[in-house]
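batch job 7 of whatever, protein = Transcriptional regulator, IclR family protein
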Amino acid sequence: MMILPPDDPRFATTLARGLSVLRAFRPTDDGLSNAEIAQRTGLPKSTVSRLTWTLGTLGYLTQSPRDDRFRPGPTLVAVGQVASASLSFLVPAQELMARLADETGALVVLAVRDGTRLVLIRTWRPARVSSIWLEVGQPVALRGFSSARAFVAAATPAELARVAAEFPASEAEPFGPMPQVRNRAGAELTARGFVFTPGGPDAAAPYNAVSVPFRGPNLPEPVVFTCGALPDAADAVRMETEIGPRLAEAVRSLERLTGQPSTLSRREA
């Protein structure tokens, strides 16, 4: 659902609503109807109809004559490619993370914040491993998961305040008790170089995962690299003792290659 920020004359509400329509799509969708988009965004169906017609006219959405459902259009794909190309750190990250995935057998993903959630924008799949999960575009809640804890640990107080302002008033503490989560995850990052969150049926996340934040050139907030695997005890041990340190070293190498300071050194700015 779209969350509007506090009143500000500079805020273009119509633009925000149009972007919320684009953000309603998920990788597993085979098109969305106006009614489904309205349900996901919380916008009136009449408003959604006008927005989808406009976005379709501009090429950001396409509408199939077969089922009248909307899908991302070529203009949106082109904009995404331009945005991806502007993230220069992805060039050296490609080799580092692909090697890590192949050598550990774990899926490696890169997540960025998108409103009140994190979204995966890159995945590196290990070769010769059949149990692969998570796709580009997959949303991740800003709570519970190792990627969320890494983001909270690395973000500055001003960045976290900006994120918290986007949540409904009923979710005043979107990350849980903020100081405790930030301090605990920050201490874990300082001590080990990564955060680890166990997974399982009774845990916040369905799988064991380790995460390390990174601040790329010209990025307004930290992004997060994560390695995830299946929720069993042996896997959890390996995550902490082998894969977590390997991921931390890969991100440190990326910082050196891109000339970036340690992410944690900027968290109090």
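notes: Strands lie at 61-63, 70-72, 107-114, 117-124, 139-141, 195-197, 209-214, 223-228.
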